[in-house]
Amino acid sequence: MTARVFSGAEQGALLVVLALLMLALLMLASLLLGAGEIGPADSLRYLLGLAAPAQLPQDMAMVMWQMRLPRMLAAVLVGGALGMAGMLLQTVTRNPLAEPGLLGVNAGAALGVVIGIACAGADVGAGYLLWALLGATLGNGCVLLATRLDQYVDAPLRLVLAGAALSATFHGLTSSILLAQQSGYDQYRFWIMGSLSGISPAALGWVAPAIVTGAALALLLSRALAALQLGDDSACALGHRPALVRTGIACAATLLTGSAVALAGPIAFLGLLAPFLARQCKCTTPAARLLLAALFGMALLLAADIAARLLARPFETPASVVTALLGAPLLVWIARRSSREGLA
Amino acid sequence: MSAQPQVLESGVLVLRWRACSWLLAWRPLCVTTLLAAGLLGAVVLALLVGSQWLSPAVIWQVVQGDASSSLLILEFRLPRVLVAVVAGMALALAGGLLQTLTGNRLASPELLGLTDGATCTMLIALVLSPEGSFGPWWVGPLGALLAMASLLVVSGGVGQRGQRMLIVGIGLACLLRAMAELALSQQSLQHASAIYAWTTGSLAGKGTATLLPLAAGLAVLLPLAMLCRRQLALLRLDVDVAATLGVPVRAVQWLTLLTAVSLAGLAVGLCGPLAFVALAAPIIAERWAGGAAMPLPACALLGGMLVVLADLLGRILLPNAELPAGVICNLLGGPFLLWVLLGKGSAGKRE
Amino acid sequence: MKSLFLPALLLACLTASTAAWAARTITDANGTQLSVPDHPERILVLSELDLDAALALKIKPVGTTNGRGQDGAPRYLGAVGSKLVSVGNFGTPVLDKVIALQPDLILAGGLPDPELLAQLRRIAPTAVTYKLGDDWKAAFARIAQITARDAQAQSFMATYQQRLTQVRSQLGKQAGATVSVVRWNPQGPAYMLKDAFASLVLADLQLKRPAGQLQPGIAHSPPLSLEALNRIDADWLFIGTLAPAGQASSALASAKAMPAFQQLAAVKRQQMVVIDGSLWTSLGGPLAALAIVDDVDKAMVKR
């Protein structure tokens, strides 16, 4: 209702401000709430410095700085990366069903982790991270190589189909390794659900630069990407080189998704949902759309992670499950609401 | 249309009989015949190959009523091979219909949550059953059916070219998958692995109990699919143009969706997710057969052949165990699709 | 060659199984009445528990399946298990191989697929020896009855009781201590629920579980939040990783490096024992039960 008062640009700005506000609240909540015995009141007093250490639970500092803070940062990084990557990919392929997993990143990462488990005995967060990153990069490399992006007029569709084809192959390889080496399955079934629990600050330190680089690259290319939407010929006329832009976008999406998967495991739905929500805002500037998608991704994952801690205290619910539980009804609701205008 | 004189492309054969005439395009016809021969060859091969290899003479003996290998061939291998054929056909048809309807290559029945619905009911049946068994054959299809029903209720309509239903289906699929995964992670490894084996799309141990409902379903749905196909060819044009041409757009969209979803639901409900057939078979069939309309017969034959060959390979690749057909479909279907996509002469083609 | 050989072999298989027919009627775990040979000679076992029980009854099976969550026969069974012929993975045995082995009795515990069961019964009498959730003692007794080796089963159980009494008496002041059984994984630890196999053996030893670990269930708990790590604390902490034990476990190393983990009372007292996760989280069996008692003996008595 209020939106009608504003012009398009103002409405976009307002939305960004609202999203930022929501994000800040969620970040705070993520620090205050946990599955353990330390409640929000104590946490708040500790954060504000209102209580002497003796009055607080003895694990306070450890829980806050070793557990909740890395987790909050991980949710922000992973959510933002997935949201932005999804938006990039959906824009460049002009397909609202495209999600970052289609680049072969998720399937490659899963294959990497399973190979790591089966051949190198990887059984710890850092080990998974390394193998997932390796697998994601290789998987994505195969997809990009297979499409030879520059040769075809209909490259976007090719990219998606090649991604789907190779992802299927990686899934097949993963399953055959798991079926031949049964002991791996027990580990794999926990990794595949994705989780933000137990992410060490060191792992954050390794992955954050990659995500930031990917995001910067994406924002840098956002204008060219918008030009590409007008068709390759128009983009050429505007001085952009379509093939180069697409390769750059694919690299950015890989950096973003690969790091996110490596850090938190596959959280599949987010890359589809966040851009979908962002597109509902009718934001025109390409960079703003990317940022909005990232913001929605962050907010969704933060909310999902908070719910993951509280749903079955003191146990953890996997973040990917909660993402789906929260996101699916949202997606359905919006799809129904906006169907008059036609989707995408 | 046939009343007007028309210029025929080369490679199209016109059959006339009194007031009727049929247009037969040579290329799809040849491709379909070749695929049918290929499917037959694959079936015979699949009967002979396994961890025990038989010579073709044995089949002859069995046909003549020699009992010694009839247990292996008639009771174990034949039903399984036929299940592979029918399931592959059903999935390929479903994929072909959905892709044509939505005009989106990524629109495959896996996206709609049918597989996940089936997995959920299988899991529920497994956990609830006092014997710890999968339960009767209809449990999986029931899950797919429930997923489909909730999809229809929740989406509240097809939307433009089925897009709304696709989007809602993706959401539903995620929800169901998440619930199944959550339930799986809390099961003992024994339960979890049994379901995992099921979700890889294995045809091991499939027999007549699976074959009969599957074949009956296909017999009912195949004519419907062919019916949809003619109308869909017109819907490939703009919706408005099709409506002007007298196509009942809504009805065709609904019929197509329901047929596709029932076909896929039956196949994945009974055999587990044989992923990728529904995505790859229509694309490959269309590339090979050419032509303006989706070549559904070729597509179905190709789907059947893919699954039979996948199952066959799965039985012989590992020395000590079987690889599920679904795994092989993924493993080999991927590169194959790529090869077809990137092959010579495809560069200029319309997607 | 093969084509000539196989029909003869199949014929032999069919006649062999029909010759031994109708000696006894037994009821399997699903309540199905079955005719099984009086003295089955060629027994095929299709699950880990069946294999464990068969070996405990001094039966040498003609074939087995790859263990669940393991690459071959379970490690605690030692060399005997690894020498057996494998007919495929649990739940999906290769029927060609089953036919070739000419079994006269198939033990198929926990087989989930009724269609497969029907096909196996075309080859040889197939008994479902346990349902998921049956405890190992009932399954063992049933397997003994089906294979007509009740006497051996009773003598094995007597040995087991003896071993229990022995270890119990040697526990001394540790008797009645609380024991936490945990599988560690990087996302968070899970503990074994009250009716899990390892929990049942610990109960036989009259060891207590901490109050937080008494929920019913045969599997493990969901992953515990790291903030609530004190839930896994007890007098003794038996901890295994998801990866097979034996190889250096970096998961456990990373757990030990975690400040919250170091604060656990059991860790501080150095009463943390690293166990073979695949044994302690298995569905069990008579030999597995003995192996667990041995583990407890080694950890709590012989220190």
From TrEMBL, chain A:
InterPro entries: ABC_BtuC-like, ABC_transptr_permease_BtuC. One of its GO terms (molecular function) is transmembrane transporter activity. Keywords: Cell membrane, Membrane, Transmembrane, Transmembrane helix, Transport. GO terms for cellular component: plasma membrane. The chain crosses the membrane at residues 12-34, 72-89, 101-121, 128-147, 159-180, 201-225, 245-278, 290-312, 318-335. It is found in: Cell membrane. It is a multi-pass membrane protein. Belongs to the binding-protein-dependent transport system permease family. FecCD subfamily. PANTHER family: FE(3+) DICITRATE TRANSPORT SYSTEM PERMEASE PROTEIN FECC-RELATED (PTHR30472:SF1), FERRIC ENTEROBACTIN TRANSPORT SYSTEM PERMEASE PROTEIN (PTHR30472). This is Iron complex transport system permease protein. The lineage of its organism: Bacteria, Pseudomonadati, Pseudomonadota, Betaproteobacteria, Neisseriales.
TrEMBL record, chain B:
One of its GO terms (molecular function) is transmembrane transporter activity. InterPro entries: ABC_BtuC-like, ABC_transptr_permease_BtuC. This is Iron complex transport system permease protein. The chain crosses the membrane at residues 24-49, 81-99, 135-154, 166-184, 204-227, 239-257, 263-284, 296-317, 323-342. It comes from Andreprevotia lacus DSM 23236. The lineage of its organism: Bacteria, Pseudomonadati, Pseudomonadota, Betaproteobacteria, Neisseriales. GO terms for cellular component: plasma membrane. Keywords: Cell membrane, Membrane, Transmembrane, Transmembrane helix, Transport. Gene3D superfamilies: ABC transporter involved in vitamin B12 uptake, BtuC (1.10.3470.10).
Automatic annotation (TrEMBL), chain C:
It holds the Pfam family Peripla_BP_2. This is Iron complex transport system substrate-binding protein. Residues 42-303 form the Fe/B12 periplasmic-binding domain. Its main location: other. The lineage of its organism: Bacteria, Pseudomonadati, Pseudomonadota, Betaproteobacteria, Neisseriales. Keywords: Ion transport, Iron, Iron transport, Signal, Transport. GO terms for biological process: iron coordination entity transport. It is found in: Cell envelope. The keyword Oxidoreductase does not apply. Belongs to the bacterial solute-binding protein 8 family. Residues 1-22 form the signal peptide. GO terms for cellular component: outer membrane-bounded periplasmic space.
